[in-house]
Automatic annotation (TrEMBL):
This is Transglutaminase domain-containing protein. InterPro entries: Papain-like_cys_pep_sf. It comes from the Bacteria.
Length: 169
């Protein structure tokens, strides 16, 4: 179980690092939220949708989860109250994967059990255009994510070849 959580934490950390420059771009295009606490603020839906796709490509059964405190007590339980939020849920091992909780003053990457009291799942209350935007963003980013992996593999192979030939130590 610890190995599964470590793998999820590694993947989540890589996804977050990949998304940071995209968050900056999203804020430049849409304007930063007023009183912004972190760069991840206002990005949870798009980031979680992308996270789910990466987890699926890694062979894990994953889905998005949402919480909107309007009409129910669901979302992310932050010190200042329950906040609307989106995160990923992995089925096996049953884990919550959240890469944007720092917008509420929590850790930047959280991998935790599905019974974590900070998370209360509800329904997706996003407007249809926001849901479509999540899909467009995911479709645009996945080829960049895949290329990043291929480029890293090529760089490692090149480094290995240079080490073997003594070109670089």
């Amino acid at each position: 179980m610890a190995e599964d959580s470590a793998r999820l934490e590694r993947i989540a950390g890589e996804v977050r690092a990949f998304l940071v420059p995209h968050w900056a771009e999203w804020h430049r295009k849409a304007g930063s939220p007023e009183g912004q606490h972190s760069l991840s603020e206002g990005t949870c839906g798009r980031s979680s949708r992308f996270m789910v796709e990466v987890l699926r490509e890694a062979g894990l059964k994953a889905r998005m989860a949402f919480g909107c405190p309007i009409g129910c007590d669901c979302g992310f339980c932050a010190p200042e109250g329950t906040r609307g939020h989106a995160w990923a849920v992995v089925r096996d091992p049953a884990r919550i994967v959240d890469i944007t909780a720092d917008q509420f003053g929590d850790a930047p990457v959280i991998v935790t059990g599905v019974d974590d009291p900070r998370y209360h799942e509800g329904h997706d209350r996003a407007d249809p255009e926001w849901i479509e935007n999540r899909e467009r963003v995911m479709q645009r980013l996945m080829p960049l994510w895949r290329a990043r992996g291929l480029n890293a593999d090529k760089a490692r192979a090149s480094d290995d070849a240079m080490r073997q030939t003594g070109e670089r130590t």
